[in-house]
Amino acid sequence: MSAAFKPEGYTSVAPYLVVKGAADTIRFLEQTFEAVELRRIADDNGRIVHAEVRIDDTVVMLADGNEQWPPFSAYVHIYVPDVDATCRRALEHGATSVQEPVQKDDEDKRGGVQDSGGTTWWIATKVD
């Protein structure tokens, strides 16, 4: 019997966000996307050196930036059941609007928000 090459319930690819204020980002993900925190490792100063949250079927990894690994802007696309409600929740929990939800030339209605850690979340729902 061979050992599994990845933890049970993890996808093969996971975004890794290096942000300013990882604890705030985790709270935002919990409040906006109903993320579930899986683990958090902090250093002696309380800085998060590694954390993981599950959003639906995906694990997102993140950490506080530092001199060696400075925070950087990232873009993450996420499908949700209701793009309008999710974008409203994101704004209620401190995000700023990048684009109001709109359907353009494909089958997705999509909006964008940026959280306080610098990540832009493109939020979409497939519509017919």
From TrEMBL:
Domain annotation VOC: ranges: 9-126
Family matches, as Gene3D superfamilies: 3.30.720.110, 3.30.720.120
Amino acid composition bias (Basic and acidic residues), ranges on this chain: 102-112
SUPFAM superfamilies the record matches: Glyoxalase/Bleomycin resistance protein/Dihydroxybiphenyl dioxygenase
Family matches, as Pfam families: Glyoxalase
InterPro entries: Glyas_Bleomycin-R_OHBP_Dase, Glyas_Fos-R_dOase_dom, VOC_core
Alphabetical list of PROSITE patterns matching this protein: VOC
Residue ranges of the region described as Disordered: 94-118
Domain of life: Bacteria
Full protein name: Glyoxalase-like domain protein
